[in-house]
Amino acid sequence: MNSNRASRKRRFTGIIQNIIGKNNNNEHLTRYIKQLENVFMHTIELANALGEMRDPSIAGHDRQVANIAVAIGKKMGFDEQRLDGLRISGHLHDIGNMIIPAGILAKSHKLSKAEYVLVMKHPISGFDLLKDVEFPWPVATVVLQHHERIDGSGYPNGLKGEQIILESRIIAVADVVEAMASHRPYRPSFSIEETLVEIQKGSGRIYDKDVAQICLRIFRENLC
Q: What pTM does this model have?
């Protein structure tokens, strides 16, 4: 009898130790994943900082585009994982500008045709930089498509409507809003009212209607 009780106690003790060991391993794994996430985000921020060093006029642009895009994504019902992908895409959407000479980015007057053609290649350059990175989100595709427009007037591939993935349609609107509201060497910033008029005019024509209307609602609510 005592032998059976001792045997059960040893088995119970073994189970407890096994559970504790698994919990310790899980805690270690959780900490490790968190460290990887922090390193990943710091790497993204480093890429943004390098871009801003080349072109100080865009300081904060990528972060603000990411913030606006995430706000739109939340209103559209994106889950946390999809919002993370949208945030990363916002931070990296202009990474292709790395291939453009800094002198062109900083020009205070109209670009030549050759210079404009080079600038228009930055989505392709960004895609080429990111296409082999195994993101759990379609980041490279978002970067490639963020200058496409619903009516096919965008670049680089003249995609239309739902040929453009939803994340790209969101980044497109966020990018225009942030760019218009910010000063650039070749023009002063537009007022928030002028920016919202541009989005309203393009809603359903060059910008996704749902995305544009949600963006307008977010800004108008904040203006009230």
A: 0.79
